């Protein structure tokens, strides 16, 4: 596999599965009793995941490339989810909540980008 070791592939798969599991548990906890409410759980997940990936990126050479891949691509890739934002946005529109749909789509994007930028800045401030 063009430069990817079997061990790295296993680490990515395990980390991705762990990230997806953490996302599921956190979303269930945040949305408990709020079935038809605004999908705040996925919003929180995507914003925190973007911030954490920004932090990892901002740390630069303090994080080895293999660890950056396992944590960034694997764990945080499994944790965050653009596809759920897309489906939630369509479901909100189908329920007649255009206002929530727009806030979900635009708000998720804006807050995730801001969180990533903050993470990169914070990571860059740490001594290396």
Structure description:
This protein has 128 residues and is mainly alpha-helical. The protein has one domain (6-125). Helix content is 79%, strand content 0%. The chain contains 5 helices and no strands. The chain has helices at residues 6-31, 40-58, 65-79, 82-94, 98-125. The longest helix is centred in the C-terminal third of the chain and has 28 residues, at 98-125. The two termini are 33 Å apart. The mean pLDDT is 95.
Topology:
Layout lengths: L5 H26 L8 H19 L6 H15 L2 H13 L3 H28 L3
Helix pairs in contact: 1-2, 1-3, 2-3, 2-5, 4-5
How many DSSP E strands?
Answer: 0
Instruction: Quickly count the helices.
Output: 5
The average pLDDT is 95
For the terminal residues, how far apart are their CA atoms? 33 Å
String of helices and strands: HHHHH
Shape: globular
**Low-confidence parts lasting 5 or more residues at pLDDT below 50?**
none
* Beta fraction: under 5%
List keywords for this structure.
128 residues, globular, 5 helices, single chain, mainly alpha
Task: Please sum up the structure shown.
The chain is mainly alpha-helical and 128 residues long. It has 5 helices and no strands. The mean pLDDT is 95.
């Amino acid at each position: 596999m063009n430069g990817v070791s079997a061990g790295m592939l296993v680490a990515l798969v395990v980390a991705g599965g762990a990230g997806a599991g953490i996302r599921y548990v956190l979303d269930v906890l945040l949305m408990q009793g709020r079935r038809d409410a605004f999908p705040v759980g996925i919003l929180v997940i995507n914003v925190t995941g973007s911030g954490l990936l920004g932090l990892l990126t901002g740390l630069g050479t303090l994080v080895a490339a293999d660890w950056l891949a396992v944590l960034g691509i694997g764990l945080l890739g499994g944790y965050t989810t653009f596809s759920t934002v897309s489906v939630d946005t369509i479901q909100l529109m189908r329920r007649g909540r255009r206002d929530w749909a727009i806030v979900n789509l635009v708000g998720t994007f804006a807050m995730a980008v801001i969180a990533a930028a903050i993470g990169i800045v914070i990571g860059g401030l740490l001594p290396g």
